[in-house]
Each structure stands twice: as structure tokens, then as C-alpha cells.
Amino acid sequence: MDDDRARVVAALQVRVNSSRLPRKALLPIEGRAMFLRCWERLALCRELDAVVVATSLDPSNDLVEALCERERIRCVRGGFTDLNVIDRLVEARERTNADALVRVTSDCPMIDPAVVGAVVARWRQDSSLDYVSNVRPGFRTWPDGLDTEVVSRECLLGLRGRIPQDYQEEPTRFIWEHPKGFKIVDVRATLDLGHLRWVVDEAPDLAFVRWAWPHLPEGFGGLEVLALREHAPPEMKRRFP
Fold this sequence. Notes:
Elements: E1 8-13, E2 28-29, E3 32-33, H1 34-42, E4 50-55, H2 62-71, E5 75-77, H3 85-96, E6 100-105, H4 113-125, E7 131-133, E8 149-152, H5 153-162, H6 171-177, E9 184-186, H7 203-212, H8 222-226
Helix pairs in contact: 3-5
């Protein structure tokens, strides 16, 4: 790798405990835990220098670490509870020596490597930016579930020392709500598809992903998902424009 090239690492945020859909990160999609499907998708992105799983020190996540060890995936643990996401992300950055960290959550198995690459490439164009994403409220044009956030090293460290306690679980929400304090770029899609829901929060979301997955080619992107509309049963139609 070019010594002058900024190092960008994806931190796949994983936890076992989840309220709306219990243990969703471990639920299988075509025989593989959902968080492993996310990792596989991120590993296809050429703009990333590494992909790690980031989980907390809560004992419930010992199983995540064990699965990562079995799969030979690097797992970084930080923050004593699942609620302390900022410490988890900082630990992932420090352990990987990243110049910027890409935050992706494990309920996004449809994450598009090309979309991730576009967001990362935009940050690489100007590494003085604090935050580049496709998720900021009011600016989202990508389906929910293709969420990609790039946070610079300096911004991430600044957030840890700056944000109040009620932002610990969602540290980038502080950026959204205080945009004047940061250098931000929003990456938008050609078409506004921000109303579509491909994230997995509840059982119907998982049913959609499980239905779609076997119909999709290896390394699929958002366009291939959209193309499923003409084959979708009535209960799946709302997932498409």
C-alpha cells in the first residue's frame, strides 16, 4: 500500500442483545449469521484497508468474539456496555491505526460495497473532512440499510471528549444535531430512495432479506435488489419504489 494513502477501516458494530428483534446479529441468512453476512459484504469494498468487528466487553458478546475467532475475523472489544458505542469505536480506531473509521451496523446485511466505496472515496478526496455519510437526516437519499458513515480520526477522538452522556450510544447523532461544529459532506444517490427500508430491525425486515438473498447474485448491489421488484410477492412490494 502507498505510504501516503490514508488508512480507512470499517468497524462493523455488533451486539448480541437487541430489543425489537432478539439476538438479531446472530440470526441466520442462508445459513450464516447476519453480522457475518455484513462482514462479507464489506470485505468486497476495495476502498477499505481492513474490516473489523467492533463489540463491547459485555459478556453476552463473548459469542460474537468466538464466532469471529472461528471465522478468522478480527474482533475488537471496547466499552463495558453496549451503550458505550463511542469508546468501542475509538478502541477500534486505535487498534487498527486508522486515519478514518467507517461505521456500519450489523443490521445492514444489504450494505452495498459500491456505495460504501463511494462514501469512502469522497472522504479520501478531502481528508480534512470530519464526517462523510449517506445517512444524515434531511439529506438521506439511499435506502435505509445501506448506511455508511466515515468519521476522521481527529473527529472521533474529539467526540469522545466532547459529547454528553446521552449521545454515547449514537455518537454521530451529535454531529447531525450540531453541524456547524464539523466539516461535513453528504453523499447522495442519483434517485431519492430514502423512503425504502432494507435494514433489519423487526421480523418483517428479516423476512424480506431472507426472501431476497437467494435471488441475488454474489457480490450484489442496490441495483440488483431493486430489480427484484418484478418478482416480489405482494407482501414485499413496499420494499421497492
